[in-house]
Amino acid sequence: MIRKRPAPAALLPVVKLAVASWPGLLASPAKAVLEKILPGYIRERRWFGGKARSVTGLKISGSVPLGGGSMLALLAVSYSRGARQTYVLPLAWKEETAALKAVKGFPGAAIARLELGGKRGLLYDAVYDEFFQKALLSLFLGRSRPCRGPLRLVAERNMKALKKAALKRGLRPRVLKGEQSNTSIIYGAEYFFKLFRRLENGLNPDVEITARLTERGEFRNMPPYIGSVSLHRGGRSRGVVGLLQGYSPAPGDSWSYALGQVNGYYKRVLARPPGGGPVPLLPDPIDPAPHGVPLRLKELIGGTCLEMISLLGRRTAEMHLALASAGSDPDFRPVLFSRRSRNSVYLSMREQASSSLRLLTRKLKDLPRAARPDAGLVLRGKRAVAEAFGGVMEGKASFKEIRVHGDFHLGQVLFTGRDFVIIDFEGEPAKPAAERRLKRCALRDVAGMLRSFHYAAWAPFLLHNNFSPGDRKRLGPWAEFWCSCVSGAYLRSYFRAAAGAAFLPAGARETASLLRAFVMEKAVYELSYELNNRPAWVGIPLKGLLRSIRPGTGAGKAGIRLRSLARGEHKRCR
Description:
574 residues; disordered N terminus; Phosphorylase Kinase, domain 1
């Protein structure tokens, strides 16, 4: 029987079953009741990637016991269109008082009020339970026996990286708040565990890249690889469930840092006297001014902001240089960006743009009123959007594709206060693992960061409601100016550090054309994402698209400016 009644934080389903044992529920026919309520639960989770699709069914296809009443359940989700997906959901049941204590501070953890054999309890996501968290770490420390049955978890670990001192003392776990596509657990100040919520066959790019860069020691600004956990069925791996890394303490990520810088910048802009002059001429972000930003404007942007963003540009280049140093490994050896590759990328860009613009047309009337004028301009500029991708087809086969980060933005970079630590090498979660392992143009990562700067410039208007209409109107042009200056500092530093690398085009004109195309591609992707997930934010990618297609931003002029940046005497990566 299923009914609903008010819960402290939300309306939770109430389920009564005659089954007396919780662990036995997932292996009994009664699990069908859970299969009916779980679609509603997972749809509200940030880690569920099927929000834009119509769910037609959910089956609990298997489960792995981890002791203490916790189970690792596999949810096979079917859709009206497209392939089925499998998600990982740790489950636990306890009597209500104990359960509420276990998930205190995580309102999204509670799934249902579940009464088993007359005992009232709570079904919840066990990742928030300390016992489950410790059981995961025990897999690496050799303190738990491999579970028996058709499904079992197998841990692979780097014994040299496991610190004996850390094993002797208790490492208290805690879950990072703020849901993402995965869930993260920190153990003391030693280890960081990432639970991959979507299970996919094959190699996981995050595990693969992190393990390789740690082994070779060519890139230090990332958490080191410790080990991974895979799910096995019949002796064969079904996919990676989690990744254990060394913990890199940091006050926050670069997104938080950038927002703090932008908010301070806006306060200084609004404090300027009325006669302080108009917004300076907007520099093209892909055409950095040869003399940089004037001193008086540097002070307005912030003392160390441009210096830190320049450092981020250098760290990005160092990451790409490490990824390009393949040795004899065919999975990492750079490959020529051939005519066939160019054509494939170009067609993919055009197809994605067409799909996003069709979606925009369908949802035009549902957009926030303030976003509709920009949406209309973008739709009238369809041809310009398509033409921007033409830069991919320009130039000769003068550079190589490499393994890249794949989902590079400010939220994927920790900020220590003095330096940056790059995390999450799994790529764009919405794409299949096999596609995320493909070699790409390194400028895709650069474009992703440029778009992230644009998001940071406009996010304060959405995250805070303390700007008057007059302030919003006044700050709009200054938002674009901040983004352009920060992007210029980032690009100048990146091209200096990566000068002469084989993953950069030899010609400055081609570099500018490609970067513009990838920036446009990213904005097109963001448009679809926001339309499907956060309509209130759709104005930012719309502004980004208009920013890219406005007159006077052709690749020719940018090519002249980038020529000196693309040159260098460093030896090319082979």
